[in-house]
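Researcher: Please translate sequence to structure tokens.
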Amino acid sequence: MSSRSGIDRTTVGVGAGLGAAAYVLGYLLTYLTQRGSVDERLETFNFLAELFGGDPIPSWQGVGWLFYNAHFVDTEVPAFGGTRVENFIAAGDGLSLLYLVPPLALLAAGAVAASVARAERPDVGATAGALVAVGYLPLAVVGAVAFGYAVGEGTIRPDPVTAVLLAGVVYPVVLGAIGGALAGWR
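Model: Translation complete:
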């Protein structure tokens, strides 16, 4: 991609790969830092689930809810008479730094995408950086489904609409573009 032209296949491929890497890195960082506390918080529920013959909630799913919460995507929790929504980061003590994980990963991915595309202007860098959404969106959709845990007739899961729109589209497009614009500006 030259500094004047549009997007080519290589730029799209690089953006997609970096977007996928940003998603995986963000989740892994959340997992590595929060697995122990998630296990601790799920201990009572998992004990009761096993006592009554149910399956315990795996750590990786609970960490997934936190990862989506870091994108400001609420977690739907079945409740008597309907569903309530939770943001476990907002409700928890000392978890607010998790809000930085997706933005930092996406800013970096956008900057690298613009650098690989050899963007020499902020607008070209922003375009290249926004392409991280091509790789981030499919994983955001898959994660929204994979992090679902059936409870009775309901499911604990990231809100599917905001998981796709906010985590899958808005976050990577905006933050990737900002990272790319900064790289193109330098």
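Researcher: Any highlights?
Model: Confidence is low (pLDDT under 50) at residues 1-5.
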